[in-house]
Specification:
The structure is a homotetramer of 223-residue chains. Chain A has a single domain, classed as Heme Oxygenase, Chain A (Up-down Bundle), CATH 1.20.910.10. The first copy, chain A, contains 11 helices and no strands. The first copy, chain A, is globular, with a radius of gyration of 17 Å. The two termini of chain A are 31 Å apart. Chains in contact: A-B, A-C, A-D, B-C, B-D, C-D. At the A-B interface, helix 4 and helix 5 of A face helix 4 and helix 5 of B.
Chain lengths: 223, 223, 223, 223
């Protein structure tokens, strides 16, 4: 999956962390169904909390956009996250007897705190681009994982998860976010963002966020 | 219009500024149609810019909410503002030959800068309540003006504007925001918010925002 | 006064607003002593409130710096503002019978709200550079005015004010801020900041802040 | 050490996490000199990065203060951190052959990211109190540890560290921060902050920050 022009460049600059993220044991367990159900539910509970703070970060992006088009796309993402994606977590957890109140009251693991608050701080300390490159690895990495797992004839155990992220709707979101990233870069850094003095720092942010994704999967395997 | 329990208390605490806002000459001109068309268009252009920054402030509220319900309501307001209300301004201005690009490029008047950036700073310097009481006078005051003008057999000249803010949809928004304000206060200050040491400061913020509404109408009369 | 390389370029890009600011009637009144004492005190009261929010904006810059050197310089400016410059306002006002409590409780004029909150929002919506170019016109414009008035054999009436901003200490601050601006630009935009897509937007921010300085002097003449 | 009235209440509400923090194996190793030098240097490098972001959080507090006195105290703390405390780390590390550039370029561990960004987000999502209770466990816990270790005839190996935090100067800082916390609470929540609906949430923030201190010591033992 390329999702635009900038994403593949940043993905390459993330070095070892990118394959460690998209080909993590947790991901393999989702594919072949070997992931223990307890680990999956534990991950879903933490991911519910993650999505709340990730929604906050996309809302922060609305406040840092330069154009109405950027504002609209970020606001639409907030809507998709807190009105659609959260409901998936709520319904799967409800089936397992975990209420939304229990989800909301769960203790955030350190790996979760580190990732979500790092993204928010990327926005507060920097500009729209700093925030966007910290948001990108989660959105686009899940798209890459979902598309691959869906194509690789997975076990049916975690089909809901795989079809969500590998499905047409989420893949369209990824293409839109890839375009948003390309356009936002061009607007602020010009036609050759790699030549900008900011490029290395933006790649470093993308890399830290990717590293924190690896840590999130690691945490998922330790209920 | 009461829109809940807290709003009428804050409105009363705003003293002279509240009637100066809701019964401003600009409002009278909307009602009897005597407002010059040029002043109305000038106001709409500034209000377009106002709504962009007002949307940013509601998005900031998403980042400062304590519950998912608060997040959802604030995110829905962002959506209503940038996907619905802005379109009204765009279409009326388009009819008058003003493109959206021209709207976006218009110079923000000082009164506009003062109001929108004051609201945003209320959010950044304080908590969810500080932001909400700075947002309330605009949302609820327009509801109060719209409902009154609609009931007072207005001239047809500015019927679009009057029916928008006096209409059922916007009135429902106002009731929801009134409830949000009541619930957010109860959650943070308890059952008797007037007894909190923060009450006076929150009323002062509401009052400043109301004063800045008066300034916005004043500016509207000076194209 | 040039105060570095970037400042003169931005000053030129501010067009008519720069001379309207540094050669304002208020400034002429400070020079020849014709400014009414009441207007000067009114200005000082508003400027006390201005400096509180301007200090907040420099503190915000500490949170948005990329290097420890940038952090240290911004923190030193916060210190200079709230531990030194504010005291000047407090002592002059005290001589006129205005207590610090009265200063703090004074109603902020719309022009004051517009300027200070615009600067803070420049920081929150953008990055360190967006904030710095919004801070620059006040710091460096006062330096330019102070140096010129001091050299032009002014009337003694407002000698305290003129010697503060025209004096060696404040002039050194201006040179340091000019260097900070040059270095911060080079670090983020490269050796030729004028070639960056962000240059026009940064100049636009500088220009708005300069326009708001003109508005502040206008307000000073209307006690 | 009590450092005021509110701190002991919050410390008690942190339950098991407080003794886990102040009586951690890392702390015991500092006292009896059994902490490996490599672990100490690793901790110092991470603590250097911690202090940079902790300074940013105190600078954020300047932007969220309600009074000039609160602003001044927070600004003085920023100064103490980035002009004094950081220099201690720089000099000890320099003796061990670690340059300041190497310190600044070190990779932040997940536990470090989690703690510092959580504190910053406490400020951005909440008000001055939310930020202050997230800052308090580090400042006051180090004071408590330093005072105790200094009194308990420690081994001389880590005397510099122990005398810094157990010394008169740092103990005075702790008393001032305890007073700041008490006064800030009284100002916003009244004379009986425990009766406020916000009390439980503020204690929860203090507890999370304390838990993250435990995680920071844990990380210190894993160079």
């Amino acid at each position: 999956m390329s999702y635009g022009r900038v994403f593949p460049l940043m993905r390459a600059a993330a070095g070892q962390y990118w394959p460690a993220y998209v080909d993590h044991d947790f991901v393999r367990g989702l594919k072949d169904g070997s992931l223990p159900k307890g680990a999956f539910l534990h991950y879903l509970v933490q991911d519910y909390l993650f999505l709340i703070h990730f929604s906050r970060a996309w809302a922060l992006a609305v406040t840092k956009a330069d154009t109405v088009a950027e504002m609209r796309q970020c606001a639409a993402t907030v809507h998709a996250l807190i009105d659609e994606e959260l409901k998936l977590h709520i319904s799967i957890c409800a089936e397992a007897g975990i209420s939304e109140a229990a989800l909301f009251a769960a203790e955030e693991r350190t790996e979760n705190l580190a990732y979500t608050r790092y993204v928010l701080d990327a926005g507060h300390s920097g500009d729209f681009l700093d925030l966007l490159v910290a948001l990108a690895p989660c959105v686009l990495g899940y798209g890459e994982i979902g598309a691959r797992l869906r194509a690789e004839t997975p076990d049916a155990t975690y089909a809901d998860w795989i079809n969500t992220y590998g499905g047409d709707e989420y893949q369209a979101v990824c293409r839109d976010v890839g375009t948003l990233l390309d356009d936002a870069m061009a607007r602020r850094l010009g036609d050759d963002p790699e030549a900008s003095p900011r490029w290395a720092q933006l790649c470093a942010r993308f890399k830290v966020a990717t590293r924190l994704e690896v840590g999130f999967w690691d945490m998922g395997l330790r209920p």
